[in-house]
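Key idea: predict the complex, not the pieces.
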Amino acid sequence: MIAEILFTMALAATDQTINVTRGTKLDVNNFAGDVIVKVWDKDAVHVEVAHSDREVVDIKPGDQTLSVRSRSVRGGPPRSLDYTITVPVWMPIAVSGTYADVTIEGTGGDVNVDTTRGDITVRGGSGFVSLKSVQGLITVERAKGRLEVRGVNESIRLADITGDVSAETTNGNIILDRVDSPNVDLYTVNGTISYDGPIRDKGVYRLTTHNGSITMPVPEKANAAMTMRTYNGSIRASFPLPSTDPERRNRRVAMTLGNGSAHVELESFGGSILLRRPGEPRPETDRRKQKDKDQVRLGTGRGLGAGAGAGIGASIADAVDQAVVDIDVDAIVDAALASVPSIDVIIDAAMAGVPHPVVVPHPVPVPTPRIKIR
Amino acid sequence: MHEEWTDRLSDYLDDELTADERAAVAAHLKSCAHCAAVAADLEKVVTHAKAAAPRPPQHDLWPGIDARIGRVAQPRRVSFTLPQLAAAAALLVAVSGGMAWQFGTQSAIGRSADASRSGNAGVDGTVAPERDASSGRPAAAESVNVAPATRVAATTVSYADAQYDAAVSDLEKALKNGRNHLDASTVSIVEHNLQIIDQAIEQARQALEADPANSYLSGHLVEARRRKLDLLRRATALTETD
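Result:
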């Protein structure tokens, strides 16, 4: 039986280089698995992917598009494949998938990524960068041009961005670092918004959340008409701010700095709005960075054990987020551990749902969700 | 007989004719009372259009429009002659002028009511003091300016917007019908996030009930409802592609 399994596991590999002319766009669709795109100085695309002999990878050059797709020779849902693709710096890139984690490094062209469940990481990119994921962290660094990011159930992190920025999610934070943009539009329903960057003359900055805080640096010499509104939160600043009644709901502060050429709107229904001077500490992101470090240290990130571990890590980190003074770390850890079932209970529960006790290993990871193909 | 001239009046007024053409039209206008009258009317239209104050919509029409976009079979192309456009523009000026006047009166009342509730208006570098609710004037002797307009100005939101409800209902049905094409965890994520938005909508509604004239709250409610439509639309699209 083992021999039979090994026979069916016979691995094939696609390792192909295709010359392309300037202006050709890369279009990749991967149902599940990683897509890693790197750049080189050749006018050619190199596609590398390991797969079993049950799958075929189709690489089709067209007039303006180089298409990369995989298919199962036996029909049925595609399997999980991990692509490593190397492209010219200038090449526009489009990647789509359902359970695809996408990482693009160093590209200088347009980028378009659309995945349902998967993280997206883009370093570089210029022109129009459009990224969408329903469930997955979206991270962009060193992009130039017009950036449009749409998440749903995860956070968005943007750093070292130059150009227009539009980012929205429903249940997650939006964290910006070192953004230089004349046009910023950020929206989340349940999450914190933290902006870091200058306020450009004639710029438009709209930061909106329903339930979460908003923080923004305000340079002393900014030229901006600022309007801040909150219904249940407060409006505070690390510098003298015109006095408001802290007890009154529905607070609104409007002020004009310099000649007021930029337009700044900060609105949080249920959270606070915090203004600070550039360079001052950002507690909201510092806590987040510490949380990330803790997750790495505890091994509570993604992968095996992430279910139980992430619960512990998130519980600890959330408790730390909400604590103000006198943090009893031991008590928090104990409470977090108590709220998570033991690994034995998790395994027992998982095994109870398996119809047959024998588990046949697959040659490559198969996406866990069941999908009906029409 | 005058059409060859009236057809060029729009370009003439926009200064888009060559020097020779412009001179010819100008010469004709001096000698033709009919065309000169049309030109004068067009100039009035331009002047009134520039002077007309912007007026935000009374209702958020997008949900209804969006719900019907998919049902439109073919776009219809309609063209008008210049005299028809001129007549329509004159009518538009008259109507919009009346509406602008009406809105100006209402918004002044709205601003007053909003200011009396929300208090702080903007001043250069400072925040305005609390207004005296009885007089509507600043309680202290500090100068008060009108704050910059918020994102959605003084829109009236109907709590039972039939078009919005119909659009949401249609999308929810489509999502329900297509949910078999999504895995359970993705459906769970979508539903969880719809609940988050619904909660935000409900909180905004309750706040607006307590403070109906609050332009921020009405704008916030409109925005939250739009986000729900966006998420429903996106989730429905997933059922078609996955």
